[in-house]
Amino acid sequence: MWLSSLIVVSVLATSLLSGVLGMAGGIVLMAILVSVVSVSAAMIVHGVVQATSNGSRALFLREHIVWKVLPPYLVGAAVALGAFVAAAVVPDASWILIVIGLFPWLARLAPKLGGLDITHPFTAVVCGGVVTAAQLFAGASGPLLDVFYLNAPLTRHQIVASKALTQTLGHLLKLVYYGGFIGTTEAFSPLFLACAMLASVLGTRLGTRLLDRFDDAVFRRVSGWAILTIGAFCAVQGTYSLVLG
């Protein structure tokens, strides 16, 4: 009971965080889950919760979604899923966490990476493939996806709404992969999953309400530093897991 309660409270808190910034919550939740359940189980719980959280956020902000990024993004996502299905393995998340953690810092230092823009079709294809692969490897890919959106000429509401849509699709693909192709021996109570999904929607709703209190300049500044902070967390977590493993 205490474990279920911990997860539900964590879902609420991380959904609130993502509702405000459109980021960060997923990677923090994944770090909590992998410390208390198996990798496959963590992927499935994370996928259910994050698909609900991001899906509800996309619904709440649907009028701000930039739909043109979706078709090319899906092309890249389909390629990544096909590659993982062919491999049919559960990877060690340590190295991918390190790579994801370092990516925002490299993007800040490298002008060419800093110019990535999700509204360009080819970049959207690359984003779909890379981000989906990262989600299938490590469960969360927020810091990686953020780089493609924060350099796009979009408002804060467009960024949060469009990211929520693409993240929802990625988590659904993760459920298809780990729930359908890999599987897990751990069973989850329907009541627990329902409470977790409800907490994700509640946290998301509260977070999107708080989003209205930011202006675009403050949002981009706060988001940028949040990406770097979460990136550092990912790198440290990955290194720690690698050393202990």
Describe the structure.
With 245 residues, this protein is mainly alpha-helical. The protein has one domain. 80% of the residues lie in helices and 0% in strands. It has eleven helices and no strands. It has helices at 2-21, 25-33, 39-60, 70-87, 93-109, 111-114, 121-138, 142-150, 156-182, 190-211, 216-244. The radius of gyration is 17 Å and the shape is globular. The model has no long low-confidence stretch (mean pLDDT 81).
How are the secondary structure elements laid out?
Elements: H1 2-21, H2 25-33, H3 39-60, H4 70-87, H5 93-109, H6 111-114, H7 121-138, H8 142-150, H9 156-182, H10 190-211, H11 216-244
Helix pairs in contact: 1-2, 1-10, 2-3, 3-9, 3-10, 4-7, 4-9, 5-8, 5-11, 7-8, 7-9, 8-11
List keywords for this structure.
245 residues, mainly alpha
Structure summarized in a few sentences:
Helix content is 80%, strand content 0%.
Main sheet attributes: strand count, strand direction, barrel closure = none
> How many helical stretches?
11
* Ends distance: 29 Å
Order of helices and strands: HHHHHHHHHHH
Q: Which segments are poorly predicted (pLDDT under 50) over 5 or more consecutive residues?
A: none
Q: Work out the count of structural domains.
A: 1
